[in-house]
Amino acid sequence: MRIEFDRDTCIGMFQCTAEWEAFERDEDDGKADLADSEEASEDLFVREVPDGEELDAKFAARSCPVDAIAVYDDDGEQIV
């Protein structure tokens, strides 16, 4: 499972940080950060979801009010 985070879209509500510890608050610019991610393109961050954290990642994606977070299964199909 893979998660993608569009940091440019993020508006800093930080609801994702309450759902999954991989999301951290960046108080300096008022947006979240996705820990241990790679920048796939400008402001798009990607990482694999560790085993056992899939539900937390899905909750984080569902909690985002601006849909800045997407979750994909192992076949590349978006599930959240």
TrEMBL record:
<dbReference type="GO" id="GO:0046872">
    <property type="term" value="F:metal ion binding"/>
</dbReference>
<dbReference type="InterPro" id="IPR051269">
    <property type="entry name" value="Fe-S_cluster_ET"/>
</dbReference>
<keyword id="KW-0249">Electron transport</keyword>
<keyword id="KW-0408">Iron</keyword>
<dbReference type="GO" id="GO:0051536">
    <property type="term" value="F:iron-sulfur cluster binding"/>
</dbReference>
<dbReference type="Pfam" id="PF13459">
    <property type="entry name" value="Fer4_15"/>
</dbReference>
<protein>
    <submittedName>
        <fullName>Ferredoxin</fullName>
    </submittedName>
</protein>
<keyword id="KW-0411">Iron-sulfur</keyword>
<keyword id="KW-0813">Transport</keyword>
<keyword id="KW-0479">Metal-binding</keyword>
